[in-house]
Amino acid sequence: MGKWFKEFIKGLVLSNPIFVLALGLCPALAVTNSLDNALGMSAAVIFVLLCSNVLVALIRTWVASIVRIPVFIVIIATFVTMVSLTFEAYMPVLYESLGIYLPLIVVNCIILGRAEAFASRNRLSLSVADALGMGLGFTLAIVIIAVIRETLGSGSLSLFEHVLFSFPVLEQQPVSLFLLPAGAFLVIGLLLAAFRRVGLIKNE
Fold first, then answer.
1. Contact present, 40 and 87 (Cβ < 8 Å)
2. N or C, which end of the chain has less CB nearby within 10 Å?
3. Is 176 inside a domain boundary?
4. In sequence order, what are the residues at sequence separation of 6 or more whose Cβ sits closer than 8 angstroms to the Cβ of residue 36?
5. Any residues with CB less than 8 A from the CB of 15 and at least 6 apart, and which?
6. Element (H, E) at 189
7. Would you say residue 77 lies in a domain?
8. Is residue 127 very low, low, confident or very high in pLDDT (cuts 50, 70, 90)?
9. What would the pLDDT profile of 74-88 be if each residue is shown by its tens digit?
């Protein structure tokens, strides 16, 4: 259990895919203009990452190295298609909001990277721990970014049409820059600087 927990906790802090490894930045920049989008993308990434890691770990000894990457991509694309069709059928508003970034999970560096670098080399239980840790680490990162961007950019924070809190001053004069791509770069940069300052991210 010690090794399982070590692999799980690694993705949350020590090897956080966004703040440490700088992977998956495309969706982190694109969909974090609202908390709804961030949570929807997180759910999709966790599902695809967990399912692909499990399947890759199960078949790792049967797949020849020469076709390993194409096989992994087919596996990932299958699960992404399942997620995409589910969102389109049951959450059409969220599906439209995520747009092209939902099918682009197929080429997300986090998903393919964990399948290739970890699941193809480790047993099932550790692959599950890795997927959950990396998936939740990704979720933690983009939720933090989304909360900051939506709050500063619109003056309030909503979760599926329910307002969690609001700031009247910001509602009247929102800093709309934070809802634009430039705002995402700014927020990520400031968070990286803050985390380095307090020691959560080690300087090279």
1. yes
2. C
3. yes
4. 94, 97, 158, 159, 160
5. 21, 134, 137
6. helix 181-198
7. yes
8. very high
9. 999 999 999 999 999
